[in-house]
Task: inverse folding
């Protein structure tokens, strides 16, 4: 089989150098063009590895400069609860906490909704309904995040403020950014979960119906558990997406690091801080410049870990049918 | 059910709370349906919100009533260039007039440009208040009354913030004449570079992984790595672009290595080229993954037929595999490009210009882009800039929708004609 797939290899089956085989050129040639092309293709593939190496090297090198500077210590960075670059306070927690809070709110919105949408689409919806709902979800997924940021600031925030009171909810607040971020993550979670639910074989559902389970019981107690690896991968990916999300929080959550757990107050996330700092005049080698690399390194490690966990979950815990 | 034989009692576990369970099941169904409808409602709310802000009443106060500028009964709009120049000279300070003349002699400008200058410098209309579309339609009378009281000089008019002038005009700090031409051009230039980088390399990598790569540890690493890169937050790519393309490769990206920096005074690496390369790296994993799927869908029998006729590896790929995968590859690429078009965060980090009135002239120009423009207008507190942001969002969404429609058309067209897709 392998031989048939390899061009020119069949010549090696012909015993040594018969003139006809030679003149037909069946022997495997070394062809300059082919090798050049293959090298180009290999380099294209290797470029992605170079990109990763580039990201890691760049982040590590500049972060090292950041931690070496006299105003910063690694311990302070990892434990400090104030981030005030102009007075030399570099504690990551105000930024990290608001990243976690906005992402947490987003997950509170996206996980139940996303799972319900996935269950509805895979277990209940007719083909026609699915034909309407899926494009809508794809459109939601395709809307640029800066548009979601605009939506959070000009739609969600006024609604929150009119419901809960203007003195409770600040103009820039984590709740509004988090909710809209949840809407952004919803299509991601629902589409991956739906794929997982669809992969559960029909026989499981039929068996469940046959022993008298209702539709809900079949969906929640048979199909969802059978697809749990795919669903948890979707949740982890959604979490990672939320942590890395930038424009919504940059526009709606605020522009000043604050260590608060009140979701209706303004704060600044890690990504929001990077955008604000680099949007201004940034001089190379300044402590501000170096600090965005340190924050970036944290972000990269966090999202990379989550992505790897998600891939491992899929590989390790996949229920293989047939 | 027959009446004669007594029905044997069913096993207790079987009809256990059956009506209750079915009721619960119906409730469940409604919960799932309601969640799904939430998605639809949110999308509608989002679109409504944008459209609502992109049209509406505007109260404009002019420093000088244009009617008083009419010469011999000819209204301002129909005056000749000389008359307009005279009006300009009479109404602005000498210093300003000299500066305008120095920027470009008025005689060399077109009539429309001089007319715009008169409007901007002499009539000086300013927006005092704006209203959303729903307010304008439902409470028009209240608005008219309120405006007549608060701003007696102001003229109330209905304004579509998104209009041909808006698309064609350059950026300005005056919301009445601000436009997004530079931003659109910047986006297009950047997308061009993104495609030039990501398309050949993306297809190359996909062909390598699907057709050439043997199952070695390095090739496995490439594959795992591509999947991971697709999950890296876009802002990280911005940081990478800042360090590599803007800073380390500054001589290349600023064009000074070719001796043709667009603007020697501000020559640094924050150019269209740097941004396009950054976006190229960002979408590369998406292009590769999509192209791989398209290539994988080409049946093996096709390759075997080509090999059987003595085709080389590359001949097989070039003449048989790629032509049959091209629709899928292009569809995936278009989707990736539309992702790049909406990206904002990496561009901010790479250093998009905050305010730029000139069009980009080469890949070494400073740049702005449509999403950047939206971001900046949204982050300003004044209402009129929110209106501009909404108008720019509409333009961006229309661009993205047409890209996606192109992808769908392509898929349908070649899906029907192509033999194996």
Result:
């Amino acid at each position: 089989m392998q031989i048939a797939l390899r061009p020119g290899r069949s010549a090696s089956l012909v015993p040594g150098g018969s003139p006809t085989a030679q003149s037909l050129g069946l022997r495997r040639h070394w062809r300059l063009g082919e090798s050049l092309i293959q090298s180009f293709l290999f380099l294209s593939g290797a470029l992605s590895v170079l990109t990763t190496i580039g990201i890691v090297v760049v982040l590590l090198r500049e972060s090292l400069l950041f931690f070496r500077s006299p105003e910063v210590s690694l311990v302070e960075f990892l434990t400090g609860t104030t981030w005030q670059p102009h007075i030399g306070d570099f504690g990551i927690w105000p930024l990290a906490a608001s990243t976690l809070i906005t992402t947490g709110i987003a997950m509170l919105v996206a996980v139940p909704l996303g799972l319900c949408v996935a269950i509805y689409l895979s277990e209940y919806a007719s083909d026609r309904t699915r034909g309407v709902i899926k494009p809508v979800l794809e459109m939601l997924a395709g809307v640029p995040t800066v548009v979601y940021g605009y939506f959070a600031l000009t739609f969600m925030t006024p609604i929150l403020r009119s419901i809960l009171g203007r003195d409770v909810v600040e103009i820039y607040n984590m709740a509004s950014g988090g909710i809209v971020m949840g809407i952004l993550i919803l299509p991601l979670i629902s589409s991956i979960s739906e794929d997982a639910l669809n992969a559960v074989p029909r026989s499981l559902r039929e068996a469940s119906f046959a022993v008298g389970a209702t539709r809900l019981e079949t969906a929640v107690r048979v199909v969802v558990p059978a697809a749990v690896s795919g669903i948890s991968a979707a949740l982890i990916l959604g979490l990672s997406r939320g942590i890395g999300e930038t424009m919504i929080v940059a526009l709606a959550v605020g522009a000043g690091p604050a260590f608060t757990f009140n979701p209706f107050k303004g704060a600044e996330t890690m990504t929001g801080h990077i955008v604000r700092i680099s949007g201004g005049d940034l001089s190379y080698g300044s402590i501000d410049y170096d600090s965005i690399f340190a924050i970036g390194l944290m972000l990269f490690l966090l999202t990379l870990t989550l992505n790897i966990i998600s891939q491992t979950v899929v590989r390790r815990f996949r229920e293989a049918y047939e | 059910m027959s009446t004669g034989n007594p029905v044997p009692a069913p096993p207790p576990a079987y009809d256990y709370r059956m009506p209750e369970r079915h009721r619960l099941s119906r409730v469940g169904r409604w919960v799932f349906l309601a969640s799904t409808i939430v998605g639809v409602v949110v999308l509608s709310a989002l679109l409504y919100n944008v459209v609502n802000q992109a049209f509406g009443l505007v109260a404009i106060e002019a420093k000088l009533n244009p009617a008083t500028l009419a010469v011999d009964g000819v209204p301002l709009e129909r005056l000749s260039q000389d008359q307009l120049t005279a009006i300009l000279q009479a109404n602005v300070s000498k210093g300003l007039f000299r500066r305008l003349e120095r920027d470009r002699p008025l005689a060399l400008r077109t009539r429309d440009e001089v007319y715009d200058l008169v409007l901007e410098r002499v009539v000086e209309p300013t927006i005092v208040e704006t209203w959303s579309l729903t307010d304008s339609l439902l409470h028009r009378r209240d608005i008219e009354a309120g405006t007549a009281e608060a701003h007696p000089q102001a003229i109330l008019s209905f304004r579509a913030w998104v209009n041909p002038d808006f698309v064609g005009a350059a950026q300005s700090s005056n919301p009445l004449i601000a436009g997004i031409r530079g931003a659109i051009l910047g986006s297009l230039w950047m997308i061009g570079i993104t495609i030039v980088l990501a398309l050949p390399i993306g297809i190359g990598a996909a062909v390598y992984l699907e057709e050439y790569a043997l199952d070695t540890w390095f090739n496995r690493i490439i594959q795992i790595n591509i999947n991971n890169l697709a999950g890296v937050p876009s802002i990280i790519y911005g940081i990478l672009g800042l360090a590599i393309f803007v800073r380390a490769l500054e001589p290349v990206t600023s064009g000074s290595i070719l001796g043709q920096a667009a603007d020697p005074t501000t020559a640094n690496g924050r150019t269209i080229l740097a941004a396009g390369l950054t976006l190229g790296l960002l979408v590369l994993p998406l292009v590769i993954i999509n192209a791989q799927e398209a290539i994988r869908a080409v049946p093996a029998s096709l390759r075997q037929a080509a090999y059987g006729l003595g085709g080389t590896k590359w001949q097989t790929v070039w003449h048989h595999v790629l032509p049959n995968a091209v629709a899928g590859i292009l569809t995936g690429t278009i989707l990736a490009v539309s992702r790049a078009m909406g990206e904002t965060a990496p561009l901010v980090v790479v250093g998009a210009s905050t305010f730029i009135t000139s069009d980009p002239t080469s890949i070494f120009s400073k740049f702005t882009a449509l999403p950047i423009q939206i971001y900046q207008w949204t982050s300003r507190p004044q209402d009129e800039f929110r209106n501009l942001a909404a108008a720019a969002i509409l333009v961006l969404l229309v661009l993205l929708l047409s890209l996606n429609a192109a992808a769908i058309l392509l898929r349908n067209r070649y899906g029907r004609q192509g033999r194996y897709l």
